[in-house]
Design goal:
mainly alpha; Four Helix Bundle (Hemerythrin (Met), subunit A); about 230 residues
């Protein structure tokens, strides 16, 4: 029996079916956000129940089909999948106070990560590099804080709605960092101070380009090292 279930869980057909059901689940969650007729919404609810039952059966097959049961729980991905499925089993009354439980069901879509090996490698690389990414993020915050302080000192009297204090200035610089309409932040100051472009260009080069490339370099290095292991 165990060998039979092991062969099922290791088969590509089974994995393909699981991926297909997860995608179907994602579609039903998205469709459920639209205005639907009562019949359609009821049909989607029954489909959601069926998907939940399938996920339960899938977890049971994977658990029973594991020759060494302790190995099942030693895998973080198995624990992740089990938690997601258990959350799905919690009944959700049609009440706004249970909105959190409804939102948690959306995370079933994340199960696609544990099923697709390539996505698992990316997530594992992110987790492995989290320490170095944290320090890069800390450095980015320090630079952002320095520029926000300088900007607040220099520009608060001219455009107080964007530079009145450090907090507001950091929000302004975060918009510049995303490169979303950042020229609308710079051009009003450029009319007052000819050298304002130096402030913004240096900030974008240091934070927006250099830091981003550094983060990418860290992730690439971790992925390469994982492939060597």
């Amino acid at each position: 029996m165990i060998k039979f279930l092991y062969n099922i869980k290791e088969s590509r057909i089974f994995q393909f079916v699981v991926i297909s059901i997860i995608i179907l689940n994602a579609i039903t969650i998205g469709v459920n956000t639209y205005e639907l007729s009562d019949f359609t919404r009821q049909a989607i609810n029954y489909l959601d129940y069926s998907i939940t039952i399938f996920f339960v059966i899938e977890i049971i097959i994977r658990f029973v089909g594991e020759p060494k049961k302790l190995q099942f729980f030693k895998s973080g991905w198995n624990v992740f999948d089990t938690i997601i499925v258990l959350i799905s089993l919690i009944p959700i009354p049609n009440n706004s106070s249970f909105l959190l439980l409804r939102l948690l069901r959306v995370f079933r879509v994340l199960r696609i990560i544990s099923v697709v090996p390539e996505l698992k490698k990316i997530i594992e690389a992110l987790l492995t590099s989290i320490k170095r990414v944290f320090y890069v993020g800390l450095l980015l915050f320090i630079i952002l804080y320095i520029y926000a302080t300088i900007g607040s000192i220099l520009f608060s009297t001219d455009i107080p709605e964007r530079w009145s204090d450090v907090g507001v200035a950091m929000i302004t610089l975060f918009q510049v960092l995303t490169l979303s309409s950042w020229e609308q932040v710079m051009l009003p100051l450029q009319d007052v101070y000819w050298w304002a472009w130096i402030y913004f260009f240096s900030f974008i080069i240091i934070c927006g380009i250099t830091m981003l490339n550094l983060l990418i370099a860290i992730l690439v290095d971790v992925v390469i090292n994982q492939k060597k292991l």
